[in-house]
Write a structure and sequence with these properties.
Elements: E1 2-8, H1 12-23, E2 28-32, E3 45-46, H2 48-56, H3 60-63, E4 69-71, E5 73-78, E6 81-87, E7 98-100, H4 103-114, E8 120-124, E9 127-134, E10 137-144, E11 149-159, H5 166-171, E12 175-177, E13 182-190, E14 201-204, E15 207-214, E16 217-225, H6 229-234, H7 237-247, E17 265-267, E18 272-274, E19 278-279, E20 282-284, E21 290-291, H8 299-319, H9 325-358, H10 367-373, H11 376-388
Parallel strand pairs: 1-2, 1-11, 2-8, 5-14, 11-20
Antiparallel strand pairs: 3-7, 4-7, 5-6, 9-10, 10-11, 12-18, 13-16, 13-17, 14-15, 15-16, 18-21, 19-20
Helix pairs in contact: 1-4, 1-8, 8-9
């Protein structure tokens, strides 16, 4: 097998870069190690930056036909205060909201649209385990498939295989670990009439709760100290229900819907980034290049922005004489600054708010949060920072 570009990993970065390169007429093969995308408790927040990319591609109307929730304003309870933190209706965009939908719907949508291009190819159940090289240049991917092992020769390999990236490990790229004081336990609770006014996040002494509305249920993220998940589960189901009910008293009568701790899934949080994103013939983007904290729910959207920048920068060289190492470095130069700024903000929130709260401190809304709460203009600026990111990447013409 051969392709101009082999993308390893069928997440948001992989599917978007695959779509964009195929749209530009470049032969691209995406490898996804699973047989489908049906894995729950992944990033489900599609921010205005990603919706704007969809609009620029002419896909927005079809995309918004998929079942989703629209959140135009963000609020959070910090101690005794409810803070109105961001107002997306103030954005200068057509889509003035965050769309909440299962990540598998986003991925299946991109696959469906990408298949309209004859240069797009997707291989499911293809688990990459090795890279081929020639004279120090990466020349392809080795993968296990149900039928046999395969080799995909490629002019460029793009690693988009997440925070536990096989590609970056095979490349031996140095990881800078920024640390994370928490993990997240994910579960579902029923959603009922009257729940619409509940704040998205709750920060109380000793624990943090996030409740993402998803149709007839909430996707609930229970933030716990790093490494504490086993101890919490060891205390048993009833203790877990009580602690959760303490965080969300309005939902205490729904705790019996958690019938087993097997219903509770662990997300091990990491915040890191590669020192160097590329070597000759290979590039990492998305979580493979920079694992993000769940703070702000920006992981999907930063990955999509990476994909747009990658296609913008590399489509021309791929159609021409080939991609040089300097072209790959241009991608890192373009996306490294917004990554560093975003991670610095996340780490600051972790250190100043999350870590003390999880250690038992009584949380108090910072003065800046109270100022934002009372200032609509600042709520618009916060919406722009969260919804559009530090640097927005506009889609270029495929020609």
């Amino acid at each position: 097998m051969s392709a101009k570009v082999c993308v390893v990993g069928g997440g948001p970065a992989g599917m978007m870069v695959g779509y964009l390169l195929a749209r530009a007429g470049i032969d691209v093969t995406v490898l996804e190690k699973h047989g489908d995308f049906l894995r729950d408790f992944r990033g489900d927040t599609v921010h205005p930056s990603t919706l704007e990319v969809m609009r620029q591609l002419g896909l927005l109307d079809d995309f918004l036909k998929l079942p989703h929730e629209e959140v135009a304003k963000l609020s959070a309870q910090i101690g005794d205060d409810v803070i109105h933190a961001a107002d997306f209706t103030r954005l200068p965009l057509k889509t003035k909201f965050i769309a909440l939908m299962p990540q598998w719907d986003l991925l299946n949508f991109l696959v469906d649209k990408a298949r309209a291009f004859p240069s797009f190819h997707l291989t499911m159940c293809a688990d990459a385990y090795g890279l081929t090289r020639s004279n120090g240049v990466v020349t392809g991917v080795l993968a296990h498939t149900p039928g046999s092992d395969v080799e995909i020769a490629a002019d460029l390999v793009i690693g988009t295989d997440g925070r536990h990236s096989t590609v970056r490990e095979l490349l031996g790229l140095k990881v800078i670990d920024l640390g994370a004081p928490m993990d997240v336990l994910w579960l579902r609770l029923p959603r009922r009439e009257g729940d619409e006014e509940l704040p998205l996040g709750r920060i109380l002494a000793g624990a943090i709760l996030v409740m993402i509305p998803r149709g007839d249920y909430f996707q609930v993220g229970y933030v716990v100290p790093k490494g504490a998940a086993d101890e919490i589960k060891a205390k048993g189901l009833e203790a877990f229900r009580r602690s959760l009910a303490h965080m969300a008293p309005a939902m205490a009568d729904r705790m019996d819907t958690i019938t087993s701790l097997d219903d509770v899934k662990l997300l091990t949080v990491a915040v890191d980034r590669l020192e160097t994103w590329c070597v000759p013939g290979a590039l990492c983007i998305g979580d493979a290049a920079h694992a993000m904290s769940p703070v702000g729910g920006i992981g999907i959207n930063l990955a999509v922005q990476d994909a747009v920048a990658t296609a913008n920068i590399l489509a021309g060289p791929l159609r021409g004489g080939g991609v040089a190492l300097e072209d790959l470095r241009d991608v890192q130069r373009r996306r490294e600054w917004p990554t560093k700024v975003t991670q610095a903000a996340q780490v600051a929130v972790q250190k100043r708010m999350i870590a003390p709260t999880l250690a038992g401190a009584t949380p108090k809304a910072p003065m800046v949060a109270k100022l934002i709460d009372h200032t609509p203009f600042l709520q618009g600026l916060a919406a722009r920072a969260v919804g559009m990111g530090v640097r927005f990447e506009a889609v270029r013409s495929p020609g």
